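Ticket reopened. Same input as before:
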Amino acid sequence: MEGTLNMLGYGVATIGPGIAVGLIFAAYINGVARQPEAQGRLQTIAILGFALAEALAIIGIALAFAL
Amino acid sequence: MIAANLIAAAGGSFTPPGPADFNLPPVFGEVTKPMILLTLSAVFIFVLTYAMARRAAIVPGRLQFAGEVVYGGVRNTIARDNIGSEHYMRFVPYLFSLFLFVLVNNYFGLIPLLQFPSFSRSGMAYGLALLSWLLYNGVGMWKHGFLGYLKHTCIPAGVSGLMLVIIVPLEFFSNILVRPVTLALRLFANMFAGHLLLILFALGGEYLLFEANASVMNIFGGVMSFVMFFGITVLELLVMFLQAYVFTLLTAMYVGGAVADEH
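Engineering reply: fixed in the latest deploy. New output:
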């Protein structure tokens, strides 16, 4: 087996965004369950939050290959 | 994980696949497989949408109905909800083509013989994100003027005083510089990782079944590898659709943010 430690580090680094994405969708599901008619508006906010949280993981993968 | 342990235990000369497997040799001249796939997808989408719209009838046929479902979805849930009912119609053609283009190119990764998602090469994804970047910035400058757009996009409502010193560079960094990069890398990384997983399980299973010494553990690992291969394929079906949806949705949201009126 060969490879770089960067990839292990990247694996650890994705824990944060992973939890964040989970929390965002948990909140979204909760919101829709309480108020189904707000789904359209909540979906936009949830996807935006998901994109922002996932950006950290994406910056991570760029750095894992670059550094 | 099981497969990886078993491969180590088998002790043979298994070389795991890596990013180098995506550097396909050129088919002819300087032309590589992703380029051909991109062209093929454009032709395919043109023929498909042309056939859908050619005999547009009040009572739609099967093909027209399928086309209308996709078009209606993009127009109503992606464009209208995010851009607002005043401006959205002029962006629907771009968003609709974008969605179909990303979707078809992603599904090329699962179609036998083609079997290569074009956007698993980062250059292709960067090109597409550049288009969206030019669109939402251009639209914002058309709506607000150059300085007006910079003010609109860098200064959130209700921030004043010393906080501006911190907020303005952050907002500029996040909205102008990071957005296109994350847009491209999200699509690229998902396609790349999914395809790499498929290669890994296919090669690992093949190695364990046919090349490593035929112990019970190796055969079990090889079979499990192919079961995982099938599972990942089903997961990829979902992920590929989701990435096309997210790419289009985020483009629509960025455009919507750029054309929004002052708060």
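Chain A has a mean pLDDT of 87. The interface with chain B takes residues 1, 40, 44, 47-48, 51, 54-55, 58-59, 61-62, 65 of chain A (CB under 8 Å). Please confirm and we'll close it.
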